């Protein structure tokens, strides 16, 4: 079982939202053998769901040490050390300085009122981290909708309660603020 960190810094994706994300992706991606990047990883639930559907590996990005430590414990308890890598890093820094990796699926569930996600998206595309046929899904709050539409240059492709989902691909590359 996945343990959520004891922290007010995380807001785990609800089961309903996670199920919706993966049901939507099921029609777009063959999960068998794909490589996944999970920004703002928290408990790791999105990455672990990817592995359960056939992904070969997940790279988790988490900067907060207690949350990182909890994620490491989750990986060990699920016996997924061979399939998972955790990078203790700020999401922007990882996206900005990583140039040698490609991912088939990138997931990001940042804290709702954190706006560095626009930079993350910019660097993901600037450094070509998303594979040609890959998908990048960002989870946000309805409360930040106006700023997110401006920052991402697009409307969410799906709304689930107070959650908005944004989808990016190489063919619909985001145009974040400042570009």
Question: What topology does this entry show?
Answer:
Blueprint: H1 15-26, E1 35-39, H2 45-52, E2 57-61, H3 65-77, E3 84-87, H4 91-97, E4 103-108, H5 117-126, E5 130-141, H6 145-152, E6 158-160, E7 163-168
Parallel strand pairs: 1-2, 1-4, 2-3, 4-5
Antiparallel strand pairs: 5-7, 6-7
Helix pairs in contact: 4-5
What would you say this structure looks like, in words?
The protein is of the alpha/beta class. The protein has one domain (32-168): Rossmann fold (3-Layer(aba) Sandwich). It has helices spanning 15-26, 45-52, 65-77, 91-97, 117-126, 145-152, and strands at 35-39, 57-61, 84-87, 103-108, 130-141, 158-160, 163-168. The protein has a seven-stranded mixed β-sheet, with helices on both faces. Strand 6 and strand 7 (163-168) form a beta hairpin. Helix 4 (91-97) packs parallel to helix 5. The protein starts with 14 loop residues before the first helix and ends in an 11-residue tail after the last strand. The model has no long low-confidence stretch (mean pLDDT 91).
